[in-house]
Amino acid sequence: MPYSPDAQFDKASLRSEALARRAALHPNAREAAAEAAAANALAWLGDVRGEVVSVFTPIGTEIGTGPLIRRLREGGAAVALPVVVENGKPLIFRQWEAGVELVASKGPGRIVIPAPPETAPAVVPDVLVVPLAAFDARGNRLGYGAGFYDRTLALLRGAKRIEAVGYAFAVQELAAVPAEPHDERLDAIATDAGIVRPAED
Fold first, then answer.
1. pLDDT at position 200
2. Where are the beta strands (DSSP E) in 8-77?
3. CATH number of the domain that 113 lies in?
4. Is residue 196 part of a domain?
5. Residue 133 has what DSSP assignment?
6. How many domains are contained in the chain?
7. Residue 158 lies in a domain
C-alpha cells in the first residue's frame, strides 16, 4: 500500500482497533495462544542450534513469550533481549542466560522494560522476534510509533542476512496496514493460528 498523507491518522485508528481486539482476549485463551504461537514459530524457524534469537518481554496485553523462550533454549538457541540505548537510535541486544534475573531498563517514552544486566554480553542476532500492534498478509507491521525496530532491522539487514518474525495473536491481523518508505517488512508472522507468509505485491 503506497504511503499517503493520511497514513499517520490511519495508523492511529488501525492501531487502536487491533489493540482493542488483543485486550479483549480471555486470559485462558491468551495462555493457549502463546503455546500455539511458540510451536508455530519453532516449526517455521527449524533448527535453531547455535543461532542468536532476540525475543522480547511482553508489555501490557502483548502475547506471552515464555513458551517461545523455553522452546528456543531447548532447541539450542542463545536467547537475547533488546535494549533501548537512546530515542531515535537502533536497539542493541544482550544475551539472556537461563536463571539470570532481568533488571529494569528504559524503554520508549516513560515505559520501563525488563532487560539483561549491563554485564551480559552484547550480541548480534540472527533472528529477531518482533512485537507489534497489528500486521497484514503482506508482512507490513504496525508498531507503537517509536520506530526502534524499523531502524534496527534496516541496520542489521545492511550488514548480514537476518530473519524478522512478527509475533502476535491472530486477532491482530488487519486487511491492510499503511506502509511508509522507511517501514521494514517482516519475513513472516507467527501467531496462534499458524504462520503468515507475506504475499507478493
1. 56
2. 52-54
3. 3.40.50.10420
4. no
5. S
6. 1
7. yes
In a domain, 17, yes or no: no
Distances in Å between the Cα of 51 and the Cα atoms of 60, 113, 116 are 28, 24, 18
- On whether residue 12 sits in a domain, the answer given is no
Residue carrying the nine cell digits 536497539: 91
Q: C-alpha cell of 52?
A: 542468536
Residue pair 12/168 in contact (Cβ under 8 Å)? The answer is: no
Annotated binding site: 11-15, 62, 141-149
Residue positions in the annotated binding site for ATP?
11-15, 141-149
Give this prediction's pTM. Answer: 0.91
Q: Are 165 and 128 in contact (CB under 8 A)?
A: yes
165 touches 187 (CB < 8 A): yes
Question: What is the chain's alpha carbon radius of gyration, rounded to the nearest angstrom?
Answer: 16
Task: Output the known binding site for substrate.
Answer: 62
- Model confidence over 81-138: pLDDT tens digits? 999 998 889 999 999 999 999 999 988 778 899 999 999 999 999 999 999 999 999 9
Whether residue 124 contacts residue 147, with contact meaning beta carbons closer than 8 Å, is answered with no
The answer for residues whose C-beta is within 8 angstroms of residue 192's C-beta and 6 or more apart is 32, 33, 34, 36, 37, 40, 63, 169, 170
* Structural domain harbouring 80: 22-124+142-170
